Amino acid sequence: MSSHPIAGAGYLFQGLRLIIRPGIKRFIAVPLLLNLLIFSAAIYVGISQFEGLMQLMESRLPTWLGWLEWLIWPLFILLLFVFVFYTFGLLANLIAAPFNGLLAEKVERLLTGRPIEQEGDYARLLAELGPTLLDELRKLAYALLWAIPFLFLLFVPLVGPVLWFLYTAWMLAVEYSDYPMGNHGLRFAEIRRRLRERRLLSLGFGAATAGMAMVPVFNFLLMPVAVAGATAMWVREFRSPNGYQGPHQSRVATHYILLTIDHLSGRMDGEILAGPLTGRMLEATETGELLGLLDLCYRTDAESAEALEAYLTHERGQRFREPPPRPDAERTPPPPSPDRPGMDESEARAILGLAPDATDDEIQAAHRRLIQRLHPDRGGSDYLAAKVNEAKRVLMSSSV
Questions:
Q1: d(CA 76, CA 50)
Q2: What is the DSSP letter of 325?
Q3: In whole angstroms, what is the distance from residue 182 CA to residue 190 CA?
Q4: Rounded to 5, what percent of the chain is helix, strand, coil?
Q5: Is this model's pTM higher than 0.85 or not?
Q6: How many other β-carbons are positioned within 10 Å of the β-carbon of residue 36?
Q7: What single string gives the DSSP state of each residue in 290-302?
Q8: Which of 33, 39, 117, 283 to pair with 1, CA 20 to 30 A apart?
């Protein structure tokens, strides 16, 4: 995780890459079309009205002041772009809100390989249209309420424009973070609280979004790019980590992977402990990146490869036959690593998700529950089933 504003800006650029990924492009059509229609209409009306104003001014000004037209037009165009993309953007987001929520859902599925527990795509979109628009109106009221003091401060030389830009950055961070967070039931107040806890990261994302809004052509892509970028930021920065071991959760640690297994749902997640992706949660890492890590595990740590294969098979639907042959040691020498010792009681308890004072009956029940989830005959993993059996053996022998 990072709290640096540059990291926040990086998520916006990641959004630019995400919207062109297969399976995502069709979901940006409606937000993109709305952006084009609303902003084009606003610019057309603004220019038409200004032309009338210029004609009126020319009829009343002396001829020798005609050069003012060449000065006023560029200033007007600049102000028009700033005004349109700061104000009409709120209208575009209001109209496109249901489609933005759907786009955020699809991007999150691309990043995590796991769908949000919702069904119906466009049918659900229509059912949620009313509540979504009400939420957007709340955000609009919040933005307008805070705009009043910042508009007054705008007239303060030097400081005013900076404060206005920071206000805009914050509002854009709130606006676009609402789509992925709202998909998980977070309310508006909770969204703001989470963003305040990572204020620099949030402002970095919002500042990059505000900057993109002022770049011609790119600003038409702003809405889908910002939704995708905010979703990536949510997945990798704001979602609750899965490092805590609850009463029905197992943990299997290897050199590269800490794998966690929920006994009740059977879901797997965990953390990457070593390698180029160190610190990432498995759920928040793209499948392609995990396959790259798997290739590294094949070359350097067989146990990590088995654990990661189990996760990719169970959670991402990947299928593996035989691992690729290890490369010649002279070409790719593996890093030295000490032999792993035999499983101790602490590791066995972590695998079965048991407290130190667990009884024999609790050991048996945890083993039975996990084997039902992880046995190879039920789509599980030989590696994990072996670890569960070994954990039971270690704990049962120590209790004798």
A1: 8
A2: P
A3: 10
A4: 70, 5, 25
A5: no
A6: 13
A7: HHHHHHHHHHH-H
A8: 117
